[in-house]
Queue: 2 jobs
Job 1
Amino acid sequence: MKPRLPLFLLLLAAAAALPAAAAAQPARLANARLESRPAAGGLEKTFRALAAAQESPAWVAWSVATTGVHHMCCYGSMDDLESGPCAGRCFLESEGRNVTVVNSDGGDCVDRSGSSRMLVFLRLEARAVERLRTFSSDCTVDAGGLPVFWLSEVRPSESVALLETFVGDSSLSRRKLGKGGEPALSAIALHDDPSADAVLEKFAAPGNSESVRKHSFFWLGNARDRRGYEFLRTLARKEESEEMRRHLTFAFSESKVPEATETLMEMAKRDPSSSVRGQALFWLAQKAGKKAAATIENAIRNDPETEVKTKAVFALTQMPKDEGIPLLIEVARNNRNPEVRKKAVFWLGQSRDPRALAFIEEVLTK
């Protein structure tokens, strides 16, 4: 009797024989009862028909192109992540964290070079969607023995439109699609399709819940490049909510667009809220290092509120030590505000940097 091949190898061999339209099938799908379905007639129509007929648990999945290259897989710890070149196995049915790391001895090794395709999985039970999960296509995905309906011929815009229906749905939030529809928003943000920009901008606008808006801000900054930045910049100029402007500073810190740093500097100098100015200073230090030093120093010297000055002192602690420590020493030595000097000395003591300790010893022995 010939030895039986593992299921994922059989699936991989079958995938090699499929036509180009179905070639987006996951290369590493394990422990699954796979059934392929075309979605040429429309993703939502195909998905809703499957959902209406599905009483027992099952997964529906498809693949889309992403903006950039990503590695979204599963590890139990940073030690596991750093231990070798193999991706971890993700368990669709795991209620807790995916903790198993698969090495090359198990036959599941995939080089962690990342992928420009994303796998989208929706779990069905009792005719309802109860979970959304996404992975990069360089990941081994274990279906726990359940049926997986793999949909081919999925258009990216239709994928975005279907996922949009799961954002802000309170019944889904009570199940396992996350507060404010965040998993759906993150999946939408990674689609390489202009429709993703329009959906994120819609949910970022006033009139949506704070949770939905904050998640949309983040993904517009993190994943949508120039168009995302331009939308956020325009929004920051007219946003009335102080809390929302605070969160916009974080979104700008995530943007790869060079002008995002300039926008953060502008908010640090001119926003009417001391809380927003302080938050902008914090993210400037994280993002820009030496480039942000002049703005942070200016806030320490000239901002009219001590609260902002002390937040600017803390921002210096977030800069690389060779840049931040000398500036902290300068503030502790020469600033005219005693509360600011006190904060600078405190953070110097926390740094354990030899230069900081030498300065503190100098002060104490005078």
Job 2
Amino acid sequence: MPIVDAENEHFWRSGATGQLRILRCRACELWIHPPSPVCRRCRSRDVGPQEVTGAATVSRFTVNYHRWQSDLDVPFVIASVELDEQAGLLVTTNIVGCAPADVRCGMRVTVEFEQIEDVWLPVFSPEVKERVG
């Protein structure tokens, strides 16, 4: 479980409302993740959480086969997904809702949340295409 503090609470508890929140610089509009109190582009301290769409693309991934805990189902996918809001805005996460063998780089995914106590872990599942007809 992550250690939740004032700097990252917006991220770990945003799933309570079903919307992923990422820090954004109010001066230059750069998205900032992992959380930082200072914008890396303009050095402003005027940063705050803002909702993102939750849409992303799998950038890179690995399939884990090691059972780190007795209640952990393996295999599972650990991935870096790039959020649509900004090139290079990466979140490390798990890919759920499909077989590990079906995950590929470039795959479109959307955020979901898995609640454990007072933390909502953002995980991503394959994007569902709208059916025509």
